[in-house]
Amino acid sequence: MTKYLLVLPKYLIMSRKIGFWLLWLGFISYAFIFAPPDQPDTLELITNLSTGKITGINPLVIALFNLMGILPMIYACMTLIDGRGQKIPAWLFTSASFAVGAFALLPYLGLRESNPKFPGQKNLFIKILDARLTGIILTIGVVILVAYGVSQGDWSDFVQQWQTSRFIHVMSLDFLTLCLVFPALLPDDMARRHVQNNSLFWVATLIPLFGALLYLCLRPSLPETIVDGGKDIGEKLAPTA
Question: By Cβ atoms counted within 10 A, which residue in 50, 61, 142, 221 is the most buried?
Answer without folding.
Answer: 61
